[in-house]
Amino acid sequence: MNSQGLGSYFKFSNVDWGNMLSSTWETIWLTLVSMIVVAILGIALGLLLFETTNSQQPWAKVLNWVVALFVNVFRSIPFIILIVLLLPVTQSIVGTIIGPRAALPSLIISAAPFYARMVELAFHELDHGVIEAAESMGATRWQIIRKVLLPESLPALVSGITVTTISLIGYTAMAGAIGAGGLGNLAYQDGFQSNNNAITLVATVIIVIIVFIFQFIGDVAVKHIDKRAN
Amino acid sequence: MIEFKDVTKTFDSKQGTVHAVQDVNLKIEDGHIYGIVGYSGAGKSTLIRMLNGLETPTSGSVNIDEVEISALTGAKLRAQRHKIGMIFQHFNLLWSRTVLENIMFPLEIAGNSKADAKQKAAHLAELVGLSGRENAYPAELSGGQKQRVGIARALANDPQILLSDEATSALDPQTTDEVLDLLLDINKKLNLTIVLITHEMHVIRKIADHVAVMEDGKIVEQGPVLEVFKRPQQAVTKRFVNEEVTPSLTETTAVVDQLLAKYPKGTIVQLTFHGDQAQLPIVSEMLKQYTLDLNIIEGAIHQTQEGAIGSLYIQISGDQSQINGALAYLQKMRVETEVLNRE
């Protein structure tokens, strides 16, 4: 393989900017859509884990075991293997295994269990006394979830989704390499396979910028929400 | 009225069965401030939690006004809990909510509209002395202010009973006294029954009218605070009472109130002698110089780390000029005097 020397990084005349822009949008779209679904699914699963952890009910114990198994299994599978493994599932859900939409099932299934664990941890780290106080006021379980668990652990939930989103951006690039579109796809096909290092460099810089922007938004949001120390 | 009948609570642990509470029988009249004192692990925390169903007895029953709390579950228990406020050692405020929003919290739970809740919360913030701090977050408040929020929150649903779980144990002595004064004030204003648990006899002496002493899950002694203070029977009670021998005998509000009720005539003076003065015949000298009738009500000498402290409650009657003269004489002899007047 010919790497064409360091100078090849800067042959920007080879970059198709229109293509770069549409790939950037694909990456952002993939990231945002999977982030939203992962946030909802992760919080639901995390809540389920938290609520069933200390329960004495047999059905809750079984549910906890099943959810924990699901979370642990899917958290352990390397993403690149998961995406290949899920190809038939993707085919039957989305109808295709090519393009950004086809990347969604594996992105979500891979990141949601990861986030669910973070959510569960965030709930466990809450001061139990606050939950007891709500109980002593006659709050229902649902009121405790809505008015205590979620708002009180919001900073941890937001910083958790920030971390998850950043790994999602990495996953989109990997998914891109096997045909899901986006910047990963561009860097792999037009950059690597066409010996066009300038395209790889630009795609990399854009991905880094996207990561920074998500991190920045997450940090600002946490700082704004967190009223524990002023 | 609150009534514990043969209440026992056992936990199964790896070390065997633990009797957290054993054969407790207790009656608490409406409007009283009932203190339960004991060292940690004595079972007082478990006992107080039975009053709002956070714990259920293994056997026996807990009744509030003929309703058996220990038998309630689900919606009925939650409805009952709306009527019982609780404050905690570590305040247990929601840090994500402002002072006002924290006070609104139990009102929202009970299903009040936001507007009603806000109005009520503002009123309560004022009652507990937090005017102007309504929009602060708990992180911006001192410990005493946090507990004031806790108290306002506990009062939000107009409870008949307020439970206090070591509510002053995390506070410094001065803040403790401020919070206790507030509780006393609320007890009088709202005719609220207060059940408090503590390991500090100071708290009992300052605000409680009745006390129960707990040890190893059992109530070993109970009665009016003054009785228990004067004649502690059990070893553990004596230890608690002796712990309380500090130079600040002047804040014995429970004692004072009782004295004033008992001796309505004349002037009641509390004298405090320090060190050497405790051995001088100061009172006898005072009687020689002034024409007075003297009635000794109570006296005691306590040994403390700073030497002996004598305290004497006397009732003097006679001409106002003679009384004033006697008081001036006592002051000249460097005896701390405090005239206990009815307000």
Automatic annotation (TrEMBL), chain A:
SUPFAM superfamilies: MetI-like
Main location: membrane
UniProt keyword Zinc-finger present: no
Signal peptide start-end: none
Transmembrane portions of the chain: 28-50, 62-87, 93-116, 154-178, 198-222
Membrane topology according to the record: Multi-pass membrane protein
Location in or out of the cell: Cell membrane
Keyword tags: Cell membrane, Membrane, Transmembrane, Transmembrane helix, Transport
Native source species: Lactiplantibacillus nangangensis
Similarity comment: Belongs to the binding-protein-dependent transport system permease family.
InterPro entries: AA_ABC_Transporter_Permease, MetI-like, MetI-like_sf
Domain ABC transmembrane type-1: from-to ranges: 24-218
Entry superkingdom: Bacteria
Protein name: Methionine ABC transporter permease
Keyword Transmembrane helix: yes
UniProtKB/TrEMBL annotation, chain B:
Superkingdom to which the source organism belongs: Bacteria
CDD domains: ABC_MetN_methionine_transporter (cd03258)
PROSITE patterns cross-referenced by the UniProt entry: ABC_TRANSPORTER_1, ABC_TRANSPORTER_2
InterPro entries, per database record: AAA+_ATPase, ABC_transporter-like_ATP-bd, ABC_transporter-like_CS, ACT-like_dom_sf, MetN_ABC, MetN_ABC_transporter-like, NIL_domain, P-loop_NTPase
Keywords, alphabetical: Amino-acid transport, ATP-binding, Cell membrane, Membrane, Nucleotide-binding, Translocase, Transport
ABC transporter domain location: 2-241
Single GO MF descriptor: ATP binding
SMART domains: AAA, NIL
Protein name per the record: Methionine ABC transporter ATP-binding protein
Organism: Lactiplantibacillus nangangensis
